[in-house]
Amino acid sequence: MSSEGAVPQRPRGSVALILLVSGLTGALLSFARGAFIPFALALLFALLLSSPVEALHRKGLARSVSALLILAIFLGLVGGMVNLLWEPAQQWLAAAPRTSLTIQRRLGPVARVMHRIDVVTNRAGQLTDTGAGAAPAPPKTAASRSDSDGLLAETWS
Known about the structure:
157 residues; mainly alpha; 4 helices
């Protein structure tokens, strides 16, 4: 047998070590997310804005000045967008309770129809589940419904 075409296999300990390090890294990131998220955002912005900074540097502007210029433009754009969206967002928030009531009013008939369909479905299920001489079972509550009650029962709950 020739070993020229064989792919070398990792030892089992190596795979276990990789899994252990991956798990520990995930746990570390979970505990350190308060510090990691700003760091990750800073890294993302550095990667995104490094190209424009380098382009301005090639035009003859110092890197620090071009970085400040790009940062000022970026913050100006974000501030302008917040300024443009502030009033519509305030109006939307002020109208939210009224909109919620309108949605509830329009969905009320649909909810009543779904409730009626659910009642009919439960009755049909009781008719098929009970024997000829057995007493009908009490109606099921939303908390005691099982997965076999069907799609409509799950939709209602």
